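Page 37, top half.
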Amino acid sequence: MSFIKALLKSKNPHQTVFTFADLTNAVPGYMGIKLKSALKYAVAKNDLIRISRGIYTLSTNYSLEELGNKYRRPSYISLYTILQENGIVFQPYTSIFLAANRSETVELDRQRYIYRKIKNEILLNPLGVNSINHISRATSERAIGDKLYLDGLEHFDNLSRINWNLMEELNAKVYLHHSAIAAFLAKNKP
């Protein structure tokens, strides 16, 4: 069985982006030099697309957010990406914003990813972060908390759908009563 056929047979139907480690686990019998050789051959035959060093996809129709999570691990989609999608800020953004263990801006396959460094104690706390189909995303409340934690007090356009109990829980359990988040709650909580 060819490498690509083995990959297709074993892959999760929702997975669109594969790291070298993913491929090692997904395709039995392919490890180390044999896997590197199979990847090089599959890319040369256009059966596999290399997006970045150690990151591959089967087609150009892959999840940009999954790529963002896999390019920098650990990370989760947050900040302006979540705030814009949920109507909390009205300014349009084309970059994908993520919380990660180091700050970096990269462009991969014509998409800009902006990683913002956040302390590991916050980054690794799962409260307010949902992981579905290989994509980790902050809730609106977690994205607000991240933004306030990183940049201090600021204005948000629409807070009508915020779960204020979750905001308080996040401030207590994730951000450990951060002053900007406490001030935001005091000013905005109904």
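Page 37, bottom half:
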Amino acid sequence: MTSSNAAAAQGAAALQGGGVTVPRHVAIIMDGNGRWAKQRGLPRAAGHKAGAEAVRRTLQAAADAGIEVLTLYAFSSENWRRSDEEISDLKGLMRFYVEKELNRLIHERVRLRLIGDYRAFGAEMTRLLDRAVEKTAKNDRLTLVVALNYGSRQEIASAAAKAASAGEVTPEAIGGNLETAGLPELDLLIRTSGEVRLSNFLLWQAAYAELLFTPVLWPDFDEMCFADALDQFAARQRRFGGR
């Protein structure tokens, strides 16, 4: 960790010690790569590459802030409707990122966890992803959850079916069968690019999460944007249905 990152981590610890609320679990809908590229007259692939850099910045910022879990919406089950060329570009970028960033995840003690039917990306990608999950399984600083070929409605339906087969359809039973079972409750959900919807992402988990929508396009999302999101979270009064 660089000295500046270490200083940021110390600052986050001081804030926690001073009573400022830091979310345990933050999720992000990373939106705006295509618009970012279009504004610059670049191909969409350039936007996705710039978006991958934003992932790196945000992961570091989350770790420095003391976040326990960061969940990123990388590829939805509806994204298959995009062009074959764009899907191919996304797959290539995922492969490059997994191969290049694995050592960084290990060094920074980041545990990788996957949700969604990522095996739909093929045998080679599945092998790379499974290897990354295995190699980082014992890391304990931050858990990075990546949603790949993920859709929340399907996740809830599957969890309800499992609960029903066990003879107990309760909120607790359904929650225990979700792909995020065992993780802290979702505290903060951020969506970039100015869109104001959840797009079939963590619908059950977001029941009492704080929602934050920012006009910033994902490739422009940086440490300052993340810090601002945490500040806004800390300023809110969470009621969980109470007055």
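Margin note: Residues 28-216 form a domain with the Undecaprenyl pyrophosphate synthetase fold (CATH 3.40.1180.10).
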